[in-house]
Amino acid sequence: MTRKIIAMDGGGTNLRVTCISSEARFRKNYGTGVNITAVSSANLVSIFSLVRDDVGIPDYIVAAFSGAGDKTREEKLRQALHYVFGNIEIEVIMDIEGLYRAAVGEARGVVVVSGTGSTVYGHDREGKAVKSGGWGHIFDDEGSAYWISKELITASLKYRDGLIPHDPIFDKLVEFFEMSTIEELVNLTLMPDMKTEIASFSRVALENPTGLARRIADEGIEILAKRTLNVLEKTGEVETIHTFGGSFASAYYNNKYSEMINNHRTTLFTGNVDEILAEQAFEKLNRS
């Protein structure tokens, strides 16, 4: 009997899908955003129909999506999946839970994300989820690549208004975004993928950070480190903290974060969440 599973890793800019069956393996990035809040149910159905056309109907789907922790959005996603794939078993989880399962597996650990957003997540000894941060770019995300870049842009506008002294990072901002003046940086908010575009500057800012860039980065990293230590208090001690996201590609960021969490052991997760979730689910399906 041929058995087939699909694992999905859905975020604001990409939908990554892995399908594993007894006969084949398929993986594809559909390159389309699946923000459950912003995308209509009709569009979700259209996107999932592309997946169905590629791989057919599976026995089981595990769907890790940004925003799926909210019951209303979870139900919206679940209904669209059932509409396309029929009455099969579907597990909907938060994207951070998907990352946790992929990075930690059946062991105990904590995952720390710092990319376009920032979150700390783990499970306590009873298996209950423990989360700090992840409240979105308007109210939260301190220490993330987006937050660091956004704070530097804010500082550049204060310099333009004569409120703070010049820092060389302001010239790098204008050059990186190919603007003529600091004032033009506000037009970044008009870009379709504003968060990702703004976040991309953090790589440059953290490469050889200026005094201002260090101060802003340190402020955000300190908050993320405090979130980490608070989560560890609730989860209990773990052997490894799994880091994930573009910020941790910076040696400066990594070293400062490690220092602020008392040099706890960390490891950078570089795997594909959808692929690992698919492998885990396929193995479990074949054991049942």
TrEMBL record:
Keywords: Kinase, Transferase. Residues 9-263 form the ATPase BadF/BadG/BcrA/BcrD type domain. It comes from the Bacteria. GO terms for molecular function: kinase activity. Pfam families: BcrAD_BadFG (PF01869). This is Putative N-acetylglucosamine kinase. It comes from Mesotoga prima MesG1.Ag.4.2.
